[in-house]
Amino acid sequence: MYQDLVYLTELENLPNIYMKILHAVKRTVLICSLLVSGSTLQAQPTKTDYIRTISELGLFLSMEYGWKEKIIPHSPRFTKPNGFDQYFRNNLRWDLKDIEKAAEKSDLLLFGVFLGTLPLMPLLSDEDYTSLLLINMEIFAINGLITHLVKSAVGRQRPSSYYETWENEEEGNLSYFSGHTSYAFAIGTSTAMMLSRAYPDNKSIIWGTTMSLAAATGYFRIAADKHYMTDVISGAVIGSLIAYYIQEQNTSKYFPSISSNGNQQTILYRFEWRI
Questions:
Q1: Count of the separate structural domains present in the chain
Q2: What is the full DSSP assignment across 3-25?
Q3: In sequence order, which ranges of the chain are alpha helices (DSSP H)?
Q4: Are residues 216 and 105 in the same domain?
Q5: Same domain, yes or no, for 81 and 212?
Q6: Which of 85, 121, 167, 185 could crosslink 214 through cysteines, CB 3.0-4.6 Å?
Q7: Picking from 67-76, 147-156, 203-212, 221-230, which range would have the lowest pLDDT averaged per residue?
Q8: pLDDT band at 267, cuts 50/70/90?
Q9: Whole-number average pLDDT of the chain
Q10: In this structure, are 157 and 225 located in the same domain?
Q11: Do 215 and 239 fall within a single domain?
Q12: What per-residue string of b and e applies to 196-231 under the rule 16 or more CB within 10 Å gives b?
């Protein structure tokens, strides 16, 4: 909805030719303003945005492939599961002969569906690709940093290590919280928010699909005896919150014409003519 254009003119003493010229200019400005106001205004990421995101990625990668081993607890701080986790483990864990298949399915969902499509999903949106990719990379880095730091700080023993269902269990004291699940929900939430803006009529389908795939990732982590239910629930909540916060903050910065509810805002113009 557009505000009325306000023209404050003092034309009484102008010749007719000048009045015609002025009215022609006014009509031109009106047409241009209507065309511009119907488009999505966009502010490109600044140099600071690129530096911040690259720094976050660098810190995450240095931890993942460098100093992570130095902070991993060598002995568990929490071992025996509570009744809630024990109940869901007993009901959701697959047979020993199938737990490797469950782990493979969780890896396929995380690395194939979520991480694998991380640079591809922005192509389905009509918003700027570089800005959307930058948002996704920041979500990926921040989620990874928080996940690994919390895992190392808590030091909860994995069910596969506690019950010895896996031989040569690596990182057996990093059960809380589920990294597969936090990544899946972080990327899934970001993707759902992004595509819901591009295809608002399909919002329910988009959210239902992404959240179902993320939930399936968490389920397979329990089925593989790699995590307890509380590990998965916590990973889902934390990953979703990280993605939501970063998406909201950066969307309002990179795409200022998009309101907080994901709808495109109409840019209103008000002209005053003084002669």
A1: 2
A2: PPP------TTS-HHHHHHHHHH
A3: 16-37, 47-62, 68-71, 83-92, 99-107, 129-154, 159-162, 179-198, 203-223, 229-254
A4: yes
A5: yes
A6: 185
A7: 67-76
A8: very low
A9: 84
A10: yes
A11: yes
A12: bbeeeeeeeebbeebbebbbbbbbbbbbbbbbbbbb
Same domain, 56 and 32: no
> Are 190 and 69 within one domain?
yes
pLDDT digits (tens, 9 = 90+) for 143-168: 999 999 999 999 999 999 999 999 87
Please choose, from the candidates 157, 151, 162, 166, the residue with its C-alpha nearest in 3D space to the C-alpha of residue 94: 166
Judge whether 97 and 195 are in contact, CB under 8 Å: no
Q: Give me the sign of the Cα torsion angle 143, 148, 153, 155.
A: positive
- Which residue's entry shows tokens 């992004």? 194
Are 2 and 97 contained in the same domain? no
Sequence letter at residue 262:
G
CATH of the domain at 188: 1.20.144
